Amino acid sequence: AKAALDAQQAKSMRQQRDAKLAECDWTQLSDAPVDKQAWAAYRQALRDVPAQAEFPWTVAWPEKP
Predict the structure, then answer these.
(1) What is the dihedral of CA 22, 34, 55, 48, to 10 degrees?
(2) d(CA 13, CA 56)
(3) Three-state DSSP class for 27?
(4) Cα separation of 11 and 48, whole Å?
(5) Is the pTM of the predicted complex or chain greater than 0.85?
(6) Contacts 24+ apart (CB under 8 A), 45-54
(7) Would you say 15 and 23 are in contact if contact means Cβ atoms under 8 Å apart?
(8) Count of CB atoms situated within 10 Å of the CB of 16
(9) Contact 19, 49 (CB under 8 A)
(10) pLDDT tens readout for residues 5-58
(11) What distance lies between CA 22 and its chain's CA centroid?
(12) Contact yes or no for 28/35 (Cβ under 8 A)
């Protein structure tokens, strides 16, 4: 049962992460008036969320630049 709960929680956290990534896709456009490196680092931190030790139950979301 714990494995099923873990899998469900992981899916939920990944969906939240994917939504956060989608919200800032525009920052990677060539003419976006933003600090591309800062946003790229933020996006990489989002992609790294599942590697966090406490994932999926405790997630430290990165802060937007």
Answers:
(1) 100
(2) 7
(3) helix
(4) 15
(5) yes
(6) 46/17, 46/20, 46/21, 47/17, 47/21, 49/13, 49/17, 50/10, 50/13, 50/14, 50/17
(7) no
(8) 14
(9) no
(10) 999 999 999 999 999 999 999 999 999 999 999 999 999 999 999 999 999 999
(11) 10
(12) no
Question: Which residue do the tokens 């992609």 mark?
Answer: 47
Could you give the C-alpha distances from 12 to 8, 27, 29, 33, 42, in angstroms and in order? 6, 24, 28, 31, 20
Structure tokens at 25: 């896709």
Token duo for residue 41: 């680092």
Residue type, position 32, single letter: A
Look up residue 6 and give its two tokens.
């873990």
